[in-house]
Each structure stands twice: as structure tokens, then as C-alpha cells.
Design goal:
Layout: E1 45-48, E2 50-51, E3 58-59, E4 62-68, E5 76-81, E6 87-91, E7 96-101, E8 107-111, E9 116-120, E10 127-131, E11 133-134, E12 137-138, E13 145-147, E14 153-157, E15 173-177, E16 183-187, E17 196-198, E18 204-209, E19 214-222, E20 225-226, E21 230-236, E22 239-244, E23 250-254, E24 259-263, E25 269-274, E26 279-285, E27 291-296, E28 299-304
Parallel strand pairs: 1-25
Antiparallel strand pairs: 2-28, 3-4, 4-5, 5-6, 7-8, 8-9, 9-10, 11-12, 13-14, 14-15, 15-16, 17-18, 18-19, 19-20, 19-21, 22-23, 23-24, 24-25, 26-27, 27-28
Length: 322
């Protein structure tokens, strides 16, 4: 997520009876009660999401989210909104940004506090470091993540929260963490890479970034390794987090444009979803996997769509990140 106004300058909403949360950066994927087949119709035209509050990450029957502030060190915790509508702290002082969920139901997070990628065991939140350095140096501020069916982790490392702790890299990159833990570079040519996602088949990696003249880039994955990327969409307005549905359509948030746009796998624009604040990320969730949650600066919105997110299709509903 790019820098934005401190939360004290943003409107705060009270907890709603429907669903209501707190800040937004981490998004992962649903786990449970999901449709096993991809059926339905992708969104089209111009839509408007109903406003709720902030920050979704759907696991089981609950919503998890990074409760993020812009104070010194960018303190963060992971909160849980249960099916009873009650909010509680799942992991205190997580120092997390984007969230994903691994095959065992644990949270994998970009943790700017630790300058690396961390795994938090649920329940309890015991932390282990998944990836902490590249070329002998800690990362800048790991931001967003996607996890493949084989456990490979892809993550973006912009410089937005680089000041959270000492040290960092000499540039911003996208990285791959192999199941054995080896870290390699996927992309070094996108300034402040941000959102990352995988196609339903896991054969294409999507990355966005680039700020005001942003780009969505696609990388074919061959024998488990991403190849040369190609620009799928250009001219994005500060692209941020994104997700993918079961048909392979890509849902890209545009931070300062206060909108999410949906693109086909060929890069054709299908739909626009408008919101009323700066936008940070998106993820599918809900009991049937057809609710799209959208996080923003001090807000969370939801909109019911006609098909599920890709995570519901992975391994018969097993939980891998979008």
C-alpha cells in the first residue's frame, strides 16, 4: 500500500451490524464452505460497492485483517471478525501488511516490522520467519503476497514502510520464495511493485506497480519458475492490491482513483467498481465465495458478485492465496 494520510485525518466509522472492521492492508483467501465448480458471470459495466468499514482476509468463517496505523514504525495487529459480528485481536503487534493463507490454514504475512515474510500459526499466532534476507540484506517493507499450490510464495517489496525498521535493499523488487526457502528475484523493473496474484491454474503470475503511471504485468510460469513478463494493462492510477476470480479475471485496485477495475486474462476491461475513499486491496470471501471485499483508507466495502474467487477452486476448496 502506498503512503496515505495518517488515520487520525480519516473518517472513522462505528462497527456495523452487517460486517465492520478496521484497517486494510492484508488480504488473503477463503477457506471452507466453497463451491467446487467455477460457474457464473463476471461483472460488467460500472458498479458501486456498499460501504462497510476496513480490511478483509477470509479464513474459515471469519474475516482477518491487518489493523494498520501510520505512527512511528507503522504498528499493526491482525484482528478477527467472527460470524457473530464480534471483533477480537487474533495476533497482537504483528507488524503486518498484506496477508495470505497457506495450505495448513496459517497466516503468511508481509511484515514490515521484521523486514521479511512471516508465518503466524493459528490459533495463537506463534511467528516464524519464512524469508528474511536477500543478498545478505533485509528487505524494504514486504507488502503483498500470493501462494502457489506447491507452497511457493511470491511477494512484493516496495519502500512504502521502509522506515519501520533499520536496513533494506538498494531497490524495490518482486521475489519468489521456493518451498525449500531459497529467495530469488522475479522482477526488478517495476518501481514500488505492489499487488501480486496468481491465475486459477497457477501458470501466470500477475504483478502491478509503478505509481501514477502504473502497469499490470503477466509472467508465464514454466516448471515452477516465472519467465519474462509482459505488460497486460498500462495507464493504471497508482495500482495497489488485487485478486483473481475463478474464470481468471483480474480485479485491480487503483489507490488514488478510488476504484477497482476488472480485466479479462487478455487485458480487456470488463467492469469498474467505484468507492468513496482511497483504495488498497481486494479479496473474495463469504460463505459462498462470491462476496468481494474491498479495503481502503479507513473503510471496507463489499459487493456481491455472480461468481467465486479463484481460491475456492484450488484443490477442491483448499486454501491458497489470490
Amino acid at each position: 500500500m502506498p503512503p496515505t494520510l495518517p488515520l487520525r485525518f480519516l473518517p472513522r466509522l462505528t462497527l456495523r451490524l452487517v460486517l465492520a472492521l478496521s484497517v486494510p492492508l492484508g488480504l488473503a483467501v477463503p477457506h471452507s464452505a466453497a463451491a467446487a465448480q467455477c460457474a457464473g458471470v463476471a461483472p460488467s459495466g460500472v458498479l458501486t460497492a456498499a460501504r462497510l468499514y476496513e480490511g478483509p482476509v477470509w479464513i474459515g468463517d471469519a474475516l482477518y485483517f491487518s489493523d494498520f496505523t501510520f505512527g512511528p514504525g507503522f504498528p499493526s495487529r491482525i484482528q478477527r471478525l467472527g460470524p457473530d459480528g464480534k471483533v477480537g485481536t487474533a495476533i497482537a503487534d504483528s507488524g503486518s501488511n498484506g496477508l495470505a493463507v497457506d495450505a495448513r490454514g496459517n497466516i503468511v504475512a508481509g511484515t514490515h516490522k521484521y523486514k521479511g515474510v512471516s508465518r503466524f500459526a493459528l490459533p495463537g499466532g506463534k511467528r516464524t520467519l519464512v524469508a528474511g534476507t536477500y543478498d545478505g540484506q533485509v528487505f524494504n517493507s514486504p507488502n503483498d503476497l500470493a501462494i502457489g499450490a506447491d507452497g511457493t510464495i511470491y511477494f512484493t517489496d516496495p519502500a512504502f514502510q521502509r522506515d519501520a525498521a533499520p536496513g533494506g535493499q538498494d531497490t524495490t523488487r518482486v521475489y519468489r520464495v521456493a518451498p525449500g526457502g531459497k529467495v530469488t528475484v522475479v522482477e526488478r523493473g517495476i518501481a514500488n511493485p505492489n499487488g501480486v496474484a496468481l491465475s486459477p491454474a497457477g501458470d501466470i503470475l500477475y504483478v502491478n506497480g509503478g505509481g501514477e503511471h502504473g502497469v499490470l504485468r503477466a509472467y508465464p510460469i514454466v516448471r515452477g519458475v516465472p519467465g519474462q513478463g509482459r505488460d497486460l494493462v498500462t495507464g493504471l492510477a497508482v495500482p495497489d492490491g488485487m485478486t483473481v476470480d475463478c474464470q481468471g479475471n483480474i480485479y485491480v485496485t487503483e489507490h488514488t482513483a478510488q476504484r477497482l477495475r476488472v480485466f479479462s486474462p487478455a487485458g480487456n476491461e470488463l467492469a469498474t467498481i467505484n468507492v468513496d475513499a482511497n483504495i488498497t486491496n481486494a479479496a473474495f470471501g463469504g460463505a459462498d465465495g462470491k462476496t468481494l471485499f474491498i479495503t481502503g483508507a479507513g473503510a471496507l466495502w463489499q459487493i456481491q458478485l455472480g461468481l467465486t474467487g479463484k481460491a475456492y477452486q484450488d484443490q477442491g476448496g483448499r486454501n491458497f492465496n489470490d
